[in-house]
Amino acid sequence: MSDSPAPGTLSVGTFKPCQGQTFSLKAEDRTIELLLSSVSSLKGDTPREDKNPFSLLFHGPPDAYFEQQTVVLHNETLGELALFLVPLGPDPDDEGRRMLYEAIFT
After folding, report:
1. Among candidates 44, 50, 47, which has minimal Cα distance to 11?
2. Rounded to two decimals, what is the model's pTM?
3. What are phi and psi of 92, to 5 degrees?
4. Which residues lie below 8 Å from residue 40, measured CB to CB, with a gap of 6+?
5. 42 within 8 A of 104, measured Cβ to Cβ
6. Dihedral, CA atoms, 98, 99, 105, 106, nearest 10 degrees?
7. φ and ψ at residue 5, rounded to 5 degrees
8. Residue 12 is inside which H or E element, if any?
9. CA–CA separation, 2 vs 76, rounded Å?
10. Distance separating alpha carbons of residues 98 and 96, to the nearest angstrom
11. How does DSSP classify residue 5?
């Protein structure tokens, strides 16, 4: 496992190698496994010239819903990361079998 990347250095390139990997979230008395299913560059204006906005989509189990909040995730490649995740609801492309969460970086 490598050292956790500094928050200001996170980019599409940081997460692309982790697409398809599991990120663990400790919540109350259990561990929730989230799958990083998509890493996408976003189009449009950004407040910073030196950053390119991007989005991460995570799939989680349907019985482990949590509200939008900053969570600490652990990944074998990246170590620990604090990310603000927003629930998008049950994934319609998956017939609601998994919850979908998003993190956006601008």
Report:
1. 50
2. 0.86
3. -65, -25
4. 12, 54, 55, 57
5. yes
6. 120
7. -70, 150
8. helix 12-15
9. 8
10. 5
11. P
